[in-house]
Amino acid sequence: MADELQYPKEDFLYAQVVERFEQQIGNNTLRAGDKLMSLRALSKEQGISLSTAYKAYAELENKGIVEARPKSGYFVKFAPAQYPKKLQSGQPTPAIQKTEVEDMIRLVYQTMRRDGVVRLSQASPSAELIPAAKLNKAMMEALRKSPTRCTQYEEIQGNRDLRKQIAKHAFNWNGNITEDEIVTTQGCMEALVFCLEAVTKPGDIVAIESPVYFGIFNVIKILGLKVLEIPVDPEDGVNLEYLEKCLGEVSVKACLFVTNFTNPLGISMPDHRKKQLVELLADRQIPLIEDDIYGEMYFGKNRPKTCKSFDKNGMVMLCSSVSKTLAPGYRVGWCIPGKFIDKVITNKLMHTVSSATPTQAAIALFFETGRYDLHMRNLRKALHTQCLRYIQAISEYFPEDIKVTHPNGGYALWIEMNSKVDAFELFESAIQESISIAPGQIFSTDARFTNYIRISFGSPYNNNIDKSLKKLGELIGKFSQ
């Protein structure tokens, strides 16, 4: 196992070379069409082996940034200057007529399950990115190690080994917690429900971001709560100035925000803004439920902090899971509910009594052996490459007037199209071509964002994806006329 988790020196060297080239291409020191030095020259200049030099160029080629030309060498293929325009701040035009958002959501889910459909609408890891064999091995090891073979109820608060591993892993976002502060759940959505029920009652107002993952406002509706939508800036995340103004006018009982790699925008709130948000709500004694399900999927060197990092009085309730990083079907989630932990445990006892024993034990072992860290290292690398390839295809195939977010993590690209395009009508046309997208209308309570779509880059780029994006670009072009 130790051998499996070591990172060879050659990997470190090639990663440094890749990063330097990316920086030069990113700041236009090297531009599209420029020839790069030969493998032998790169090896000599950087003091690395020929195999490491080749690996560095292969990585850049895999990302679509560099191309190898027979008998000519390596050339810059694509530079950030060629990206579509970034999405700008501003409010979407409200829907002209009332639309049943629930019907749209239902149709998106039903059609994306059809055989042969390219699921650009699914913001989760594709099967190719999940280490199924290693997960199976962890499950068998967990069953063998358990005195009861995982057949008995777990502790109400959750598997202790799993909670210990989650507490250790919190070090990555500057968390300083113990296993006694954590409650495990059946996925992140259940964690959100338990936290909402702990701090609100039917009729209360909950502030959420807009646009937002449709599952969040559906849960709020089911719990009999009212929604206050707070706009999100493509650079800074939740608009704190707008939120502060609303808090002076409306009695908000809780806030529920995704602060890292939001769905659908894919952007993160800067850490200093997270601190401002925590302080703003703490002064008013308003609980913050933080959905951090995407926080581990960062493309940079360091994981972004959480709002929980700045929590001094237990008012931040962090929720997360392995559904987007490792195993959607295992339904292993958790929350760190701060001062509300007793209420959350009571809610869990009333709803589910206990979380599933075998999956919790398997995920605990997956963390403990270091397999999770190794998997995440590979997943982040794959997602970053896929993000770049998808954006390149969009810049090539979509109309020139489109705008797109440039995420630094997560799964989602949020695309603004010409105002003539109705995203749901585009969805209906695309599904006839066996392409599933997420229309913007399903990310608000009143079907706004009519000329926006979300595309996920969770599947490795291949010919099928390429053809689908090209066809989608053609359809957008027709609707734009």
Task: Walk me through this protein's architecture.
The chain has 481 residues and is an alpha/beta fold. The protein is built from 16 helices and 17 strands. The strands form 4 sheets. Strands 5-12-11-10-9-6-7-8 form an 8-stranded mixed β-sheet, sandwiched between helices. It has a 5-stranded mixed β-sheet with strand order 3-13-14-17-16. Helix 9 (214-222) links the parallel strand 6 and strand 7 (226-233). The termini are far apart. Residues 1-7 and 91-99 have low confidence and may be disordered.
Q: What labels would you give this structure?
A:
eight-stranded mixed β-sheet, globular, five-stranded mixed β-sheet, single chain, 481 residues, alpha/beta
Topology diagram in text:
Blueprint: H1 2-5, H2 9-26, H3 39-46, H4 50-62, E1 66-69, E2 73-76, E3 85-86, H5 101-112, E4 118-119, H6 132-145, H7 160-169, E5 183-185, H8 187-199, E6 205-210, H9 214-222, E7 226-233, E8 237-238, H10 240-247, E9 252-257, H11 271-283, E10 288-291, E11 316-321, E12 333-336, H12 341-351, H13 357-368, H14 371-397, E13 403-404, E14 412-416, H15 423-432, E15 435-436, E16 438-439, E17 452-456, H16 463-480
Parallel strand pairs: 3-13, 4-15, 6-7, 6-9, 9-10, 10-11
Antiparallel strand pairs: 1-2, 5-12, 7-8, 11-12, 13-14, 14-17, 16-17
Helix pairs in contact: 2-4, 3-4, 6-13, 7-13, 8-9, 8-12, 14-16
- Proportion of strand residues: 5-15%
Overall residue-averaged pLDDT value: 89
Spans of at least 5 consecutive residues whose pLDDT stays below 50 are 1-7, 91-99
SS-based structural class? Answer: alpha/beta
Distance between the termini: 58 Å
Helix content: 40-55%
What strand line-up does the widest sheet have?
5-12-11-10-9-6-7-8
- Rounded to an integer in angstroms, the radius of gyration calculated over CA atoms is 23 Å
Question: Count of DSSP E strands?
Answer: 17
Largest sheet: 8 strands, mixed
Task: Supply the number of helical segments.
Answer: 16
